Amino acid sequence: MTTRSTTDPTARRSLEPFLNKVPTITATFWLIKVLSTTVGETFADYLTVQVGLGWAVTDGAMLVVLAAVMFAQLRTRRYVPAIYWATVVLVSIVGTQITDLFTDIFGVSLYVSTAVFMVLLAIVFTVWWREERTLAITSIDTPRRERFYWGAILVTFALGTAAGDLATEALSLGFRNGALIFSGLILAVWAAKKLGLSTVVAFWIAYVLTRPLGASLGDLLSQDKSYGGIGLGAQTTSVLFLLVIVALVAREQLVVRRHGVRTKGQAPAVHPARDAAWAGSGLVAVTAAALFLAPGATAAPTATTSDARTPIEADTTSPIGDLTGIATIVDDIGTLVDSGDLAGAKTRAKDLEVAWDSSEAAMKPQSPADWHSIDGAIDETLTAVRAGTPTQDACSTAVAALQSSIATVEGEA
């Protein structure tokens, strides 16, 4: 019979206690969570649209990266800030992609997907409670509890995406009102907790609500000023949020290194007031940078094209806002198709995809039905010009249908 020496690293690791795997719930925790939500969503959009990978490649790549980071997270035996928050960002990406896949690709109603994800979350919580008799994240100190925890986190991101999109579309909230309303709901949960609501229940409700709050704040910063945003753009907003996240996570890493992982019942290593000051500093940094980087107001481009095709007379009066920029690109694509330059039309179609996706947060809530009618026509146009062997007839037909759809929304057809 042989035994492994306790000097063996593998043997020593098996004897180490399995400490709590998640951070203490503080102001810094909530700020990083909200910022991570925005970074996750905008980064996925960047890969899909700006880089041009498409949803299938992006979704597959993010699943592979999430699996690798999740493996590292599950292998650790205690809370490691860098690994934990990297996992949260990637879960945010994948959770958002799951909802978008059902909504945008398979055409599932947001009412249906919201209901389905609510049921799934209830199932996860029910099984978790039956097996562990607790849903508290202060007790994520066994491998099985951690698996339940991450399963619940993934579903909350998907649910938060679906419920947030449903609220902004069905109620036409827009990102500015959405940010105010979801902030108010989170404050209401905090007040209910002070009045006796279970800490566990309050945490999970707030966790779901921070997903649409983060999306609304991200849209507020990234959307053009003509839509009521700050105008930073998705890339600048993502980089800004990521820098603040890295700074706060680095501080978390330093705190854990100095004071160790907090176990259930232990007081936080950093006084709540001091932690709130750090979170406040992060908010101030985001606000100051946003104001400094915000561009001046720019006029919308006017639609110009050749006489080969009648241009769309789009203006700022459509039910979903100013379509002049979109109309310009569509007319350009039509002109290129008419001249036989299908390669040029494909290149210009990338501009259409970027412009349309960038304006979604501002336009879609104003009139979801009108937005979807144009969105479907844009998808047909993109499919036609990006076909393996595109034909002029197919491209021309798709562009004409898109122009007709825009004109119909404008009330010109």
* Quantity of strands, as a count: 0
Instruction: Look at the helices and sheets and give the structural class.
Output: mainly alpha
The total number of structural domains is 2
Relative strand content: under 5%
Gross morphology is elongated
Helices, by number, come to 14
Calculate the mean pLDDT score and round it: 84
* Largest sheet features: none
Q: List the secondary-structure elements in sequence, H or E.
A: HHHHHHHHHHHHHH
Rg calculated over all Cα atoms: 24 Å
Unreliable stretches, pLDDT < 50, 5 or more residues?
1-6, 9-15, 297-308
Report helical residue fraction.
over 70%
Report how far apart the termini are.
86 Å
InterPro entries: DUF347
Organism: Demequina capsici
Keywords: Membrane, Transmembrane, Transmembrane helix
Protein name: Membrane-anchored protein
Draw up the topology in text:
Layout: H1 9-15, H2 27-50, H3 54-75, H4 81-105, H5 110-132, H6 143-170, H7 174-194, H8 199-222, H9 234-259, H10 272-293, H11 324-338, H12 342-363, H13 368-385, H14 392-410
Helix pairs in contact: 2-3, 2-4, 2-8, 2-9, 3-4, 4-6, 5-6, 6-8, 7-8, 8-9, 9-10, 11-12, 11-14, 12-13, 13-14
Task: Write up this protein.
It is a single chain. The protein has helices at residues 9-15, 27-50, 54-75, 81-105, 110-132, 143-170, 174-194, 199-222, 234-259, 272-293, 324-338, 342-363, 368-385, 392-410. The N and C termini lie far apart (86 Å). The model is unreliable at 1-6, 9-15 and 297-308 (pLDDT under 50). The radius of gyration is 24 Å and the shape is elongated. The protein has two domains: 16-293, no CATH class; 324-410, no CATH class. The protein is mainly alpha-helical and 413 residues long. The relative contact order is 0.10. It contains 14 helices and no strands. The chain crosses the membrane at residues 53-72, 79-99, 105-128, 148-167, 230-250. This is Membrane-anchored protein. InterPro entries: DUF347.
